[in-house]
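Hi there,

I know you've been waiting on this one. I reran it after we fixed the sequence typo, so this is the corrected version. Both the input and the resulting structure follow.
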Amino acid sequence: MKKPNIHVSEHRKLRKSRDVRINLFFFLVFSLFVALIVRLGIVQIVQGEEFLKEVSKTEADYASLPAPRGKMVDRYNRVVVDNKSIPAITYQVDKTTKAEGKIKTAKKLAEYISYDAAFLKEELKDRDLKDYWLAANPEEAQKLLSKNETKLEPSVTYKLQVERVPDEAIEELKASPVLQELAYIYTRFSSGYQYEPQIVKSSDLKDTEVATVAEHLEELPGVDVITEWDRSYPYGDYLKTVFGGLTTSEQGILKSREDFYSVRGYELNERVGKSYLEYQYEDYLNPRKAKIEYISDNNGEIISEKVIDEGQRGKDLKLSFDMELQMKVEEIVEEELLQAGRNHILMDRAFVVMMDPYQGDVLAMVGKQLDPDNRRKVLDYAYGAFTTQYEAGSTVKGATVLAGYQDGMPHGQTYYDAPIHLKGTPEKKSYSAYPLGLMTDLSALQESSNVYMFYVAMKIAGISYVKNGSFNATAEDFQKLRNYFMQFGLGVPTGIDLPQESSGLQNPPDEPGKLLDISIGQFDTYTPLQLAQYVSVIANGGHRIQPRIVTSIHEPKEDSELGPIVVDKEPKILNRVNNTASDIEQVQKGFKLVVTSGTAEGKFTHDVAGKTGTSETAYYGVKRAYWGTETNNLNFVGYYPSENPQVAFSVVVPWVSNDSDPINKTIANRVVEAYVDLQKKYVTAVEIDQQELVQKEK
C-alpha cells in the first residue's frame, strides 16, 4: 500500500514548532539553574555567617538581675521599711571564661576599687586563698601533681592540688593587702553560676569607684555596673531589729535553709531575710527578679541577649504596729530606764508590749537595754520582748484565781492571810511585815496576798494545810497548775508570727514548796509578750488571741497605695479558757480594785485595770560577777479602759535593787497616757478629713 504524500510546507511547519518548544524548555531550565545559583550565592555569601550561627545555636541560658523587695507599712499605711537603689559592681561568667581571664580582669579591676583590711580578714577563708593561688600560679599548681595523678579526673586532681598548696604561699597572701584584694575579687568572680551577675562590691562603694569602673568597662570583660537594692527605714532605728536584717550579696542564701531556697529557684548570691520579719515572710517579700535570656553558639560565644521578664517588686506587708505610738513608748521607756539606772546598778533593761486584746494586733513592742560599756547609752532590745523571759511576780495572780475557780473554788472564797509554816520549806508569807488578815478573792487581788494564792495552789493539789506538816506536792500537781496557766498563754508559745520566740522556762522543782511559788509568779519565767497575751485573755472575757505582727499581704503597686490583698490574716482565737463569764468578771473587778484602792492606787490618770507584780529574783544579766545577787523584777499588766478595753499591755523591768521604786507603774501610766493622746489625735484627724470632704462636695 502506498504512503500518503505529505506536503513539504506542512512538514516544515511541524519541525519549526517542535524547535520552538525545545528552545523554550531549555531556556526555562537555564533560568531555574541561574536562580538556584544566585540563591545559593546569597545564602553562602550574604547570609552564610548568620545561618551558620543559627545551625550551631545551643540551648538558651538565663540570668537574673536584682529587683526590690516588698515594702512594710504600719496599721495606718505609713511606710516603715522601704527600698533604695544603690550601685553595684558585678562580674559575669560565660562559657568561654577561663581562670587566666579572671585573674587578668581581677588585677585590672583591683586598680580601680579597694576593700577595708578588716573586711577582707573577716571574709577571706584559707580555701579562698588556695583557690586564688592555684589560678594565679598554674605552672606551680601543675607541679603539685605526679605524672600518674595528672591522668585522673579534673575534680580529683584539683582536690589534691588544694590540699598541697604550700603553707608559705598562703602566709605570703595573708601578709599582702594587695594580694588579699586580688584573692577576694577572684573569689567573687567565681562565686556563682554562669551568666549570673556576681556582686563584686556594693557595700561602701564610693562614687569615684563607680565612675572609674564605668569609664573602663571596655578593658574589663565580664565586669558591669548595675543597680542593686538595699533597705531604707523612714523611721530610723525604731523597731529595726524586729523588722529584721538581710544577708549581703557576698553572703548570699543562708546555708541552714539551702533546701528551702533551692526549690524556689534562688541563686547562690541572692540576698535573703536572715532574721525576724524579713526571715519569717521571705516567701512574700522576695521579688520576682528580672530575667535575661542569652543565646550562645557551640563555642560559647553569646549570639544574642534579651530581657524576657522585667521582674516585679516583692509583696508588701501591712503591719499591726502604730509607729507613732511605738516612738512615744520607746521614748518613755528610754527616759525612765536612764533615770532609774543611776540608782540600780544591775537594772539594765525594760520592756513594754501593747496589743489589741480582741484582734491580737501588737500595737507597740518596746525593749530597751543600757549599754554595759556606757550606761548613758541605750540600745534597742525590742526582740527581747518575745525571746527573753523573767519571773513575773504577782501579775500572774489573776491566772491563779481563775485556776481556782476552774478547780471548784467559789466566788468570795475566804482565806486568812498569815505566815504559812511547812515541814522542810522556808516560811511562806505575803510581802507585808504583818498578816493581811481575812482575804476574799477580790481583796486578795487588791492587796496582792501571797498567802491567799498559796491556799488556792494547795486546794488545786488536793493538800490541806497543817501547820509544820508535810507538803507532798507531786510532779502531777506541778503539771496540773501549769496546765491551768497554759490556757492563758503562760508557759507556752504565744503563736506570734516571728521566729525564735521563747516559751518561757519551767524550772525543775528542788522542793515541793515551789508549787506555791508558781502561784505567785516566783518560780517559772515568762516573756513580756506572754504577759500581754495573758492579760488580754482577762480583758476580752476569756479568749486567748494569737498575737500578730502582719495583718495582711498585698500585691505591689507603683504608687504609695497598697495593692490588692493576697493574704488576709484574720484574728485567730487559740483557745477559750475553761472559766465562765462571771469568773472573768470577778477577776476584772479585782484588777479594777488594784488601781482604785490597791497596790497601784493613785498611780494612774486614766481608767486602767491591772495587776502589779514584784518578784524577788537572783540576777543573771550581763555582769557575770554579780550573778546570784538578790534583786527584784518590777512588773505590771493591765488594760484600758476598764470597760470594753481598747488596749492591753505588759511592763517588765528586771533586776531592780529594791522593790520600792515605782518605775513599773510610772511606765505603765505614761504609755497609757500616750495611747489616749494619740487616739484623740486620730479622731481629730478623721474629723478634719470628713470636714474637708464635705467642703469639697459643696
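Quick highlight: The chain is about 40% helix and 20% strand.

Best,
R. S.
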